User: Fold this.
Amino acid sequence: MKLAEAKDKFLQTWGALGSNWGVSRTMAQIHALLLIAPDPMSAEDVMEQLQISRGNANLNIRALIDWGLVQKELRSGERKEFFVAEKDIWKVFRMVVKERRKRELEPMLRILADLKEIDGSKTDRETKEFIEVIDNIHRLAGKADKSLATLIKADENWFLGSVMKLMR
Amino acid sequence: MKLAEAKDKFLQTWGALGSNWGVSRTMAQIHALLLIAPDPMSAEDVMEQLQISRGNANLNIRALIDWGLVQKELRSGERKEFFVAEKDIWKVFRMVVKERRKRELEPMLRILADLKEIDGSKTDRETKEFIEVIDNIHRLAGKADKSLATLIKADENWFLGSVMKLMR
DNA sequence: ATAAACTTTCAAAAAGTTTTGAAAGTTCAA
DNA sequence: TTGAACTTTCAAAACTTTTTGAAAGTTTAT
Assistant:
């Protein structure tokens, strides 16, 4: 396989993966592009390489910065902004987990806590079943939340090393 | 909060969550509905409660069965099919992880292995950077794959218990 | 103050995804 | 067999998300 072909395949694959991870297709592609770029790229460079519009490029680069996956790099004497991706994949993974925990898990925990406050006799089957299910979900979600909080802070080798050893 | 209101809120919340997890909105709502139902429900029941069409109900119930989240239940003397959701949330979680591992992680691992086969001098910066990045991703993805394989087989208390203790 | 070099915004268009519902298919009791 | 009771399929419609591109905004050198 030629380099150009491999690069393209990687952009496509990373893009597809992204849409399964709450990161939009283009966002993931821009990230992929920056990941394999040996040097910082300007918005213009990104637009050209991925054949996307100025607005689209701008929007998604901004989102990547928001997620903490890309950083601006300014050069003295240049007005243009350049961008670099975080290249430590373990850090990227943690960033994504962190962001999703904030956006999804935390709101859900609040709602579940609310739902348990349902009033009425815990005697009829419907109510009983409902409370039981919500409670189970709430407990698991709580544990997951704590585990993720720790994972977010953890060092790669330490984490994967211990978990995998543990798992024999 | 009244039971009916709480149920509705739960259906909406679970539906929204689903779309972040590779399970379509309606699919997740049907799952939620079955989760809190004290008894098995027929396709007709689901259609009525969720106000969705026959085709939609059928398609998504089938998908849920595919994912292993819902099971058919036949009653002798009745031609209609009834459906029950898996109510053990930890099992549900494992099922989802298992399915996504198969659908996303495994194909990606194959592609990454391929991408490393790139030919050409590892001397120029572009090629070097590319191989380096792909290799890092491949290694992390491999570790993740192994960890997930173990998690899928693990028992809830054992898993969360040990990981959380470990994480202190 | 001006203009060149950029970045940001946003409404409209395109693309992608999900849902519908009518028609076709299947199963089973009689 | 037949037909009633269901389930499945699929093309078209509805809805959602993403992308575009032109216009507006910002910054900096002169």
